[in-house]
Predict the structure.
Amino acid sequence: MKIVLLFPAKAKPPAAQTLIDEYAKRIKSIGPCEIHYYKEERVDNRNPSEVKANEAKKINNFLKPNDYLVACDERGTHIDTDNLVAFTKNAILSQGKFIGKDRVIIIIGGALGLSQTIRNQADVIWSLSGLVMAGSIARVVLSEAVYRALTIIKGHPYHNA
């Protein structure tokens, strides 16, 4: 099964995008995982719920009926490396809750976060940290964490535990 990290647009500052691109290259070389982007809504004078609703439409255009959806949000369940490794391994092997699913989509929202609609659609909501962080930093953290999980599964020496 393929794992897809779904991010809003390209990260700013460019140094963050450089890191994401590096992990994307590494991820692609080691496992069935890739990074995709959706067009982030501009934060302007519109109501924040309108901005989030418009982003939700773009996200939903990407999703398919047999996707397993993971939403990343600071109010979600804390995930650690061991949990992510087990999750990733089961997803790749299409075991347990992944039976009958085609893809795992792990999504990070735009500047205002994810709409409640997307949160409600999610099969699970993860918190990447107890901290609130800039979206570009969250993308780097998630990219590195998924790469680390894949290297652990493959027995690659990247993880020195």
Residues 77 and 109 are 16 Å apart (CA to CA). Residues 2-154 form a domain with the Alpha/beta knot fold (CATH 3.40.1280.10). The beta strands are 2-8, 33-38, 67-78, 103-108, 124-127. The chain has five helices and five strands.
